[in-house]
């Protein structure tokens, strides 16, 4: 059985590949736990840079609705499952923000729900022209998690962040680039080449200066603010996830299962 997250090391570059391919890399606690474990291993290798990639057709489609429903037998069970998932995701986002080298995301396909936070934690984002991002929270009855309120407004502005989420707007690659969420938009077969070009450029830079630049942006006060906002996201998510209307919406989304 393939691990949900794979770590590869080559020429000083650490690549973390989301590999829950049968479920579009939808987030479950096991995937998030594996991501955090591989992240810790990657830190120990002292890489030039970290690349986040996907082995599935989607980059990641947020929390797995089937996972929530599998734990919806009682309110307590659903709450415990959701707390583990969202807390783990938020911890992974903070660990990415603290990573001591540049973080690059290769977004090959749909990016929805809380998975956006993994990409918001990246410094350089290559996005396939066939990819898009979309929140879906107001469709499912969830409160936003994964940085949609903790990180996105600072990137795109409060008004744009609210419009995207309240209307559940689908943001294609070109609009993501215009909003500053993608560094470069490429054709689907050009994603690897774009990332390779960045890796070649980063290898020529002073590694201490790269680390100092990143930690200067993501300094302790800013990280503390993000952490507090992520905690509030988690709490709001937990407030809504067990509501009967939310559970009913999840069941309809899953075909009544």
TrEMBL record:
GO terms for molecular function: isomerase activity. It comes from Polymorphum gilvum (strain LMG 25793 / CGMCC 1.9160 / SL003B-26A1). This is Enoyl-CoA hydratase/isomerase family protein. SUPFAM superfamilies: ClpP/crotonase. InterPro entries: ClpP/crotonase-like_dom_sf (IPR029045), Enoyl-CoA_hydra/iso (IPR001753). It comes from the Bacteria. Keywords: Isomerase. Pfam families: ECH_1.
């Amino acid at each position: 059985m393939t691990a949900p997250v794979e770590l590869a090391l080559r020429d000083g570059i650490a690549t973390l590949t989301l590999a829950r391919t049968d479920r579009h890399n939808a987030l479950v606690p096991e995937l998030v736990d594996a991501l955090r474990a591989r992240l810790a291993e990657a830190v120990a290798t002292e890489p030039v840079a970290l690349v986040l990639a996907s082995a599935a057709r989607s980059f990641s489609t947020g929390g797995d609705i089937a996972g929530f429903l599998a734990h919806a037998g009682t309110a307590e069970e659903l709450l415990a499952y959701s707390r583990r998932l969202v807390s783990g995701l938020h911890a992974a986002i903070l660990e990415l923000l603290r990573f001591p080298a540049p973080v690059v995301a290769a977004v090959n396909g749909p990016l929805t729900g809380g998975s956006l936070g993994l990409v918001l934690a990246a410094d350089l984002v290559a996005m396939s022209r066939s990819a898009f991002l979309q929140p879906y929270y107001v469709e499912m009855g969830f409160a936003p998690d994964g940085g949609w309120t903790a990180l996105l407004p600072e990137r795109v502005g409060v008004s744009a962040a609210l419009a995207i989420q309240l209307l559940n707007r689908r943001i294609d690659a070109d609009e993501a680039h215009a909003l500053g969420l993608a560094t470069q938009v490429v054709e689907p077969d050009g994603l690897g080449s774009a990332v390779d070009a960045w890796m070649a450029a980063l290898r020529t830079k002073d590694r201490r200066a790269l680390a100092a630049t990143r930690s200067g942006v993501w300094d302790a006060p800013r990280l503390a603010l993000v952490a507090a906002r992520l905690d509030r996201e988690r709490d709001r998510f937990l407030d809504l996830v067990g509501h009967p209307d939310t559970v009913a919406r999840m069941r309809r989304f899953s075909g009544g299962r």
